[in-house]
Sequence to fold (256 residues):
Amino acid sequence: MKAQTKKGSVKSVGARSKKSAVARPSGESVLLIVEPDAKFRRRLKQMLLKTSADIDIVEAGTVATAIRRFEDHRPGTILLALALPDGSGLEVLRHAMASDDSGMVIVLAEQATSEMRLQCFEEGADFVFTKSDATDRAVITAQKASQRELARSSRKPVPQRIQRATLTLSNKTGLHVLPAARLLRATQRFLAKIEIAGNGKVADGKNLMEILALRAEMGTVISVTAEGDDAVQAIMAIRSLVARKFHEGPAEKPVK
Fold:
């Protein structure tokens, strides 16, 4: 991926560039595009750079990658799709709001029903547009936000006490002893009640023996439910642990 630096020159932006993550304070002209369709994502990027070549753009096509991009680059603006292959864009929105609610989030949805708009606004989104007839408006709004021509509204996300995520175990040993113990340490940090379902069984996420009893091997799909004031943070921590394969090996490769 490339981003504009000085006039007439470009530089590569590493997916997990520690230098860029440290050098860019929150609110700088960094824009995160979260969109599963690579072709449409490139189109959005081209539209943004056509009139605003100084915007530093990073990209993601999944929830897990988007959260990593957010942590690495702390974008001031997020252009966000809701339908992602590993979950909902609302999870990215919740992560952004829980980490830094000063950024601007612009949702670009397939369909924008009144119920969906309300939910996005309740979660902290600033704008909701539809891809079919408002892509240009969404891009213009994102450009103005990145150039600080728009200020974020004072809207605060409404606390969501129940959060859910569906995750696939990609580490070699699944939820055997060591990964299960690491999962237990993660869940015990939170007050929320956490349940983990898999293989037709349901386990208390804070009980090691019940987690082991799931017999969840590599490739098993688990459903995680967290209920409580810190449910959002609990789900984010568990999603990150699973994406990083419980630290058994390399984390999921980022989308380029």
The two ends are 7 Å apart (CA to CA). The CA atoms of residues 106 and 141 lie 8 Å apart.
